[in-house]
């Protein structure tokens, strides 16, 4: 009997029917899940994986795609000055844009909490996200236009400048050749040094349209006819042009107006001894002059070109200008994400800090920012990934002459491959470089997301 019991104990237990059924159900669930995921995997493979692998392979061939060149495209990429400019500009974008956006989003998210109409304010700041990059590029291309009559930013800049520094009223004025005024290298006009006290001078200029004359301009004929005293010099600066024709050059005709507000200097031995401004009829007068010969000088600021504003899209400012457009679009995104993180902060911690006597700045710096660090990191890394791929704004806003000054890796890749370069081997190498730069940020973001999920 003992032997029988031992044999029965050693005999394996029969499989439980529910174990086999459970394995079948799990296997069936995996198959069903795979069937659901399969369309997405096919699309992912066709639209992402295959193009990536093809670009990697294409980067080892020449422009025609028929000759294997190994790493020559990668070597050429770092020898090309335009590509180096693109790498430099991309680095500027990666450092500046995400930092500013994260900082602006944090500040606005904190301040919006204290605004009565917080929802409306958030909506207003988030609205640019609904505008496509193409439309935003066109908007800012017009806003940055150098013509103050078209570009709103230059219109504002010109208005502010002219409010503090008045421009010349006669930027197009000039003297007739051989009429007694000689143009100097600095843009001024000077008469011969043969005018003595008691003498008069008639200085005629042309190049000013009658419609552009100041509203207070008066006829210069009577001013030209006045005699000077023994110790003074008189004269008139006038527009030597008779509307409708019929006037005589070099002579002040009855229908010719003076040029008011023109600054004029009396010069002796190369030094300015007196200065005055013409009246409404263009007349001027120097009194108390010592005996001797004088020259009349019209300084260059009389003919200075008007202030046209800032060259926003010039080689120097084009990249900061485009980054400004990017900030306009993405500030709302940053603010909303950080605001969502701010809403989850433990209010009892903030209230305890206030009860302990901490002011708002101390709370912000020592409690709010540290608690928001995970959210700020995610926002920053997400923006880094985004700015590495920026293309539309750069391509649309930057004018053709400065396109190379503003180019980034994405635009350079397109220009080399399709925008005239027609070298898809080099363009594929640029695409691979961009992928290599983006991957670390993507991996960091995914890992941080998984840690937060756990």
What does it look like?
- There is one protein chain.
- The protein has two domains: 72-155 and 312-453, Orthogonal Bundle (MetI-like fold); 174-303, Immunoglobulin-like, CATH 2.60.40.
- By secondary structure, it is an alpha+beta fold.
- It starts with a helix and ends with a helix.
- The longest helix is centred in the first third of the chain and has 42 residues, at 17-58.
- The chain has 16 helices and nine strands.
- The strands form two sheets. It has a five-stranded antiparallel beta sheet, with no helix packed on it.
- The model has no long low-confidence stretch (mean pLDDT 86).
- It has helices spanning 2-10, 17-58, 72-79, 81-112, 118-126, 133-143, 152-164, 221-225, 318-343, 347-355, 360-371, 373-388, 392-397, 403-406, 409-417, 424-453, and strands spanning 174-175, 182-183, 189-190, 200-206, 232-239, 263-268, 271-277, 283-287, 295-298.
- α4 (81-112) packs antiparallel against α12.
């Amino acid at each position: 009997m003992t032997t029988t019991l031992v044999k029965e104990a050693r005999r394996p237990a029969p499989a439980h029917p529910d174990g086999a059924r459970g394995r079948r159900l799990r296997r069936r669930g995996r198959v069903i899940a795979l069937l659901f995921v399969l369309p997405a995997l096919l699309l992912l493979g066709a639209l992402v994986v295959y193009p990536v692998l093809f670009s990697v392979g294409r980067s080892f061939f020449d422009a025609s795609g028929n000759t294997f060149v190994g790493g020559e495209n990668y070597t050429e990429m770092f020898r090309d000055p335009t590509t180096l400019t693109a790498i430099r500009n991309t680095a500027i974008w990666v450092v500046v844009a995400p930092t500013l956006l994260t900082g602006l989003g944090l500040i606005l998210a904190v301040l919006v909490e204290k605004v009565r109409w917080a929802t409306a304010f958030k909506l207003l700041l988030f609205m640019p996200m609904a505008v496509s990059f193409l439309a935003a590029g066109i908007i800012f291309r017009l806003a940055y236009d150098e013509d103050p009559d078209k570009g709103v930013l230059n219109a504002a800049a010109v208005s502010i400048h002219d409010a503090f520094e008045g421009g010349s009223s006669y930027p197009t004025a000039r003297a007739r050749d051989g009429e007694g005024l000689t143009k100097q290298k600095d843009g001024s006009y000077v008469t011969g040094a043969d005018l003595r006290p008691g003498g008069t001078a008639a200085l005629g200029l042309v190049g000013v349209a009658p419609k552009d004359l100041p509203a207070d301009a008066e006829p210069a004929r009577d001013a030209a006819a006045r005699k000077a005293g023994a110790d003074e010099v008189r004269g008139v600066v006038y527009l030597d042009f008779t509307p409708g024709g019929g006037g005589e050059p070099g002579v002040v005709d009855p229908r010719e107006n003076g040029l008011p507000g023109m600054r004029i200097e009396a010069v002796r031995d190369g030094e300015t001894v007196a200065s005055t401004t013409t009246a409404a009829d263009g007349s001027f007068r120097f009194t108390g002059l010592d005996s001797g010969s004088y020259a009349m000088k019209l300084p260059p600021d009389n003919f200075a070109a008007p202030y046209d504003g800032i060259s926003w899209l010039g080689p120097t400012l084009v990249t900061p200008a485009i980054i400004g457009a990017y900030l306009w679009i993405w500030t709302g995104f940053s603010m909303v994400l950080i605001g969502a993180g701010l809403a989850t902060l433990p209010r009892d911690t903030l209230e305890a800090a206030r009860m302990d006597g901490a002011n708002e700045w101390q709370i912000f710096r020592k409690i709010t920012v540290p608690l928001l660090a995970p959210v700020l990191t995610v926002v920053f890394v997400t923006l880094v990934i985004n700015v590495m791929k920026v293309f539309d704004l750069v391509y649309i806003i930057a004018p053709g002459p400065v396109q190379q000054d503003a180019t980034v890796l994405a635009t350079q890749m397109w220009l080399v491959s399709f925008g005239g370069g027609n070298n898809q081997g080099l363009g594929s190498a640029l695409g691979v470089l961009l992928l290599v730069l983006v991957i670390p940020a993507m991996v960091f973001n995914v890992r941080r997301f998984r840690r937060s999920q756990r």
